Amino acid sequence: MSNQSKDFYKVLGVAESADHDAIRKAYRKLAKESHPDANQGKPEAAERFKEIGEAYSVLSNPEKRKQYDRMRKAGSFGFGRGPQGPTRSSETPGAPGGGTGGESFSFEDLGGMGGLGDLFSSIFDRGRRAGGGKQGPRRGDDVEFIVEISFQTAVRGGRVSIQVPITEECATCAGTGAAPGTSLLRCSECGGVGTVSFGQGGFAVNRPCPACMGRGRVPESPCPSCHGGGAVRQMRKLQVAVPEGVETGSKLRLTGQGERGSAGGEPGDLILTFKVKSHRFFRRDGLDIHVSVPINVAQAILGSKVRVRTVEGKHVVLKIPPGTQTGTRFRIRGQGVAKGGRRGDQYVEVRVEVPETVSDDGKERLREFAEASGLRY
To answer: What pLDDT is recorded for position 201?
Structure first.
């Protein structure tokens, strides 16, 4: 498909009515599939990657998307006089080899709108962190991780050990991406500026250079540990203090435990989301605990006392009055979940169980009981 006939909506595989989230989701998926790092030796993937970047840079910006849509409807879409390939970003549209004088779009324009700058940092952070001299300090990315904990730990609190996958600066090359003893060379694709420009109709689109990932420099010899990326994926072991009363969906932020920053930037945070395992006896509803306790017919008719376990590991003696029906609920105050200075209750539902087999003598006595009580059988 030539530059003149490209349709940005078709490039991303979205409808013209697609909202920003749908466009962003489509871009993320396609960019990961076509990224040069994942398709080494496949030049067609690099071209596809550039094409996807062009489309997203326009459709993700409301104002530029409106202008693009107007051009399409007016019939001017496809009549571009722009360049057919990449040029260095220092060449402006309208200059020789730089476009038609139409509106110029830059990835930097999208930074404050949650655009491509943010996406590149989250999807291709390996390249962004690899030590380009042109980038200032950058805060590390936050890392989100799901932690599965036991029911008792969620209720009482405690400590758990976790292993979180974290992108760390490569210790072998100190984050430069170059093998020890070798240097960084100016990128031949972008001339060292870190960005390249592509023409599309009346548009000129600037985007990070795919060859150097926007760094402007490429390793003379790639680091054997990180393969030139400047960062490696490792498992970080942590001991986490779980507050009492957490439940599924509760979050805990650990400041400074996320991805490391680049160029001296501070690290991001680690955001833990708890997932509580179910329990075979206890069930939680807010701060209250619910349990079901079986009793026999005699206990239900004559009354009894039963020992009931609580989430704190203690046992409470519960008095069952005579004539208790199955499904009756009793409340044990203050034996629920403690959280924020409050504590719930524990509710006990009794379940009357009827024996499956009765001896002949037992049946005779039951008949006598039924007749004496006026019960039909």
So the answer is: 53
**Is the sign of the CA dihedral 46, 52, 53, 54 positive or negative?**
positive
Contact 128, 230 (CB under 8 A): no
> What integer pLDDT is reported at residue 335 of this predicted model?
94
Q: What is the pLDDT of residue 287?
A: 95
User: Which distant-in-sequence residues (6+ apart) come within 8 Å of 110 by Cβ?
Assistant: 57, 60, 61, 116, 117
Rounded Cα gap, residues 34 and 38, in angstroms: 7
Phi and psi (nearest 5°) for 342?
-115, 155
Q: How far apart are CA 216 and CA 130, in angstroms?
A: 11
Query: What distance lies between CA 261 and its chain's CA centroid?
Result: 19
Has this prediction a pTM greater than 0.90?
no
Distances (CA, A) of 10 to 182, 206, 278, 324: 43, 20, 46, 69
Task: Answer positive or negative: Cα dihedral of 74, 75, 78, 81.
Answer: negative
Residue 348 has what pLDDT? Answer: 97
**Distance, CA of 111 to CA of 117 (rounded, Å):** 5
Tokens of 155: 């209720």
Both tokens of residue 243? Answer: 């507050």
pLDDT at 96: 35
Burial profile 263-292: b = 16 or more Cβ within 10 angstroms, e = fewer: eebebbbbebebebeebeebebeebbbebe
Residue with tokens 């509710």: 347
Edge-to-edge strands of the sheet including 270-276?
143-149, 270-276, 251-254
DSSP state of 281: S
Q: Is 106 exposed, middle or buried (0-12, 13-18, 19+ CB in 10 A)?
A: middle
Q: In this predicted structure, what is the pLDDT of residue 174?
A: 80
Q: Report the pLDDT value the prediction gives residue 74, as an integer from 0 to 100.
A: 63
List of the chain residues with pLDDT < 50 = 1-4, 76-134
CA 234 to chain centre: 18
d(Cα 55, Cα 83) in Å, to the nearest integer? 16
Length of the chain: 377
